[in-house]
C-alpha cells in the first residue's frame, strides 16, 4: 500500500542551528524557514536526492510538537511520511485492520498542500506515521 518515503520529520529546539547542521556539516540543500500557522510549526525543508527531511519548530501557543520537545529537549525524530495513491482507500484499509487514525479521521491538507492523515504510533512500531496522497 505505501509507496515512497516522502519525508522524515525532526522536531528541533533551535531551527537555525539545525538548518546549519544540515547545510554546513552534512552539506545538504536546505530551504529558508516556512511558517505554517495552520499546523503550528515553522518548517525548514532539507532536499535529499531520494527524499526530504523536515526540521520542525513550534509556532504559536498550541503547537502539536511543543509537548514532544518538552519530553525530548534536544529534539528528535517526530514522524515519518509515506506516500499513498488514494488516501481514503488507504485509511479504510488501515482502519479495517484495527489501526487508529488520529483526529477525526478525515484527511487534512498537509505542509505540501496535499491530503494527509496521521496514524497512532502504538499501532506502527512506536513511530508516529503520516500518509500523504501524492
Ligand atoms: Co509530515
Helix-strand topology string: EHEEEEHEHEEE
State the helix count: 3
What's the total count of β strands? 9
**Which parts are unreliable, with pLDDT below 50 for 5 consecutive residues or more?**
none
Rg value: 15 Å
Query: What structural class is derived from the secondary structure elements?
Result: alpha+beta
Structure characterization notes:
The protein is of the alpha+beta class and about 130 residues long. It has one domain (about 5-134): 2,3-Dihydroxybiphenyl 1,2-Dioxygenase, domain 1 (Roll), CATH 3.10.180. Helix content is about 20%, strand content about 35%. The chain is built from three helices and nine strands; from the N terminus they run βαββββαβαβββ. It has helices at about 15-25, 65-70, 85-95, and strands at about 5-10, 30, 35, 40-45, 50-60, 75-85, 110, 115-120, 130-134. Strands 1, 2, 3, 4, 5, 6, 7, 8 and 9 form a nine-stranded mixed sheet that branches. A hairpin with a 4-residue loop joins β4 (about 40-45) and β5 (about 50-60). The longest helix is centred in the N-terminal third of the chain and has 11 residues, at about 15-25. The protein is globular and about 45 Å long. The mean pLDDT is about 95. The chain binds cobalt (II) ion. Cobalt (II) ion binds next to β1 and β6.
Amino acid at each position: 500500500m505505501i509507496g515512497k518515503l516522502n519525508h522524515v520529520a525532526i522536531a528541533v529546539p533551535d531551527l537555525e542551528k539545525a538548518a546549519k547542521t544540515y547545510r554546513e556539516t552534512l552539506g545538504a540543500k536546505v530551504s529558508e524557514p516556512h511558517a505554517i500557522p495552520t499546523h503550528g510549526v515553522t518548517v525548514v525543508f532539507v532536499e535529499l536526492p531520494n527524499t526530504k527531511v523536515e526540521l520542525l519548530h513550534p509556532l504559536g501557543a498550541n503547537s502539536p510538537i511543543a509537548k514532544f520537545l518538552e519530553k525530548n529537549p534536544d529534539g528528535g525524530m517526530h514522524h515519518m511520511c509515506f506516500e499513498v495513491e488514494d488516501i481514503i482507500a488507504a485509511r479504510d484499509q488501515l482502519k479495517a485492520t484495527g489501526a487508529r487514525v488520529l483526529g477525526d479521521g478525515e484527511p487534512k491538507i498537509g505542509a505540501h498542500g496535499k491530503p494527509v492523515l496521521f496514524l497512532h504510533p502504538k499501532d506502527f512500531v512506536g513511530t508516529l506515521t503520516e500518509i500523504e496522497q501524492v
